Please model this.
Amino acid sequence: MGEIFTSLQGEGPLLGRRQVFVRFSGCSLGCSYCDTRAYLRRTESCQLEAAPGSRMFIRIRNPLSVDMVIECVKLHAAPEVHSVSITGGEPLEQPEFAETLAGELKSLGMRVYLETNGFSCDLFSRIAEHIDIAAIDVKLPGTVRCSRDQSDRLIENELACLRRSSEMGIHTIAKVVVLQETGERDLERICREMPSVDAIVIQPATGQCMSELKLLALHSIASRHLGADRAMVIPQMHKALGMM
Ligand code: SF4
Model:
């Protein structure tokens, strides 16, 4: 486990909702724009916020048990909390832990929000019954350090996760991080194959300079395929606000 803390959701259509963040450490992808590099490897200890919103942290040596994580989440639970965000790193790289945790949170009546890079539809399917909201990445070619074949397989899995999530009635958000050099044809190809998700978020990579024309062109593609109500361009607001 990497860290557990309270903050505001800084991405996508749930922007500004208060959440308890449970961040897993460890992710095998290498996205050029990764903003959680400190958690790409499993960390030796977990950083726990001592009281909600206090930004006072204590460190506990890993591994934490699911029960310990639940106790910490309970400490942060409050009426103003919208949901618990299981995030990373990549939570599905620790599938048993993620599945048990999501199941326990759900059984406690908490709303569960999963953020995943969607690398495995099989693993996503294992946890899906416990998830209320799924934010699933679609990594455009050229944004992850891998071969074209690996990129195609990743995209296949991501689209399969989105399909499964929609079919199961989970509130489904497709997140596509874009760069100035993002090919419009690449986005077009993905949108053509995308199921009818609740929202598709075009997210400009933080720190990248993107032209207004490019963003409008990318938004038009998403909107044409998924509908004007579902297509949106939203940057990472927690970065803009200097929040965790
Ligand atoms: S999937 Fe997420 S955590 Fe993993 S490298 Fe990409 S941006 Fe970073």
Q: What stands out?
A: The CA atoms of residues 116 and 201 lie 14 Å apart. The chain is about 35% helix and 20% strand. Residues 27, 29-31, 34, 36, 40, 88-90, 117 surround iron/sulfur cluster (CB under 6 Å). The beta strands are 3-8, 18-23, 45-49, 57-61, 83-87, 112-116, 133-137, 171-178, 199-204, 231-233.
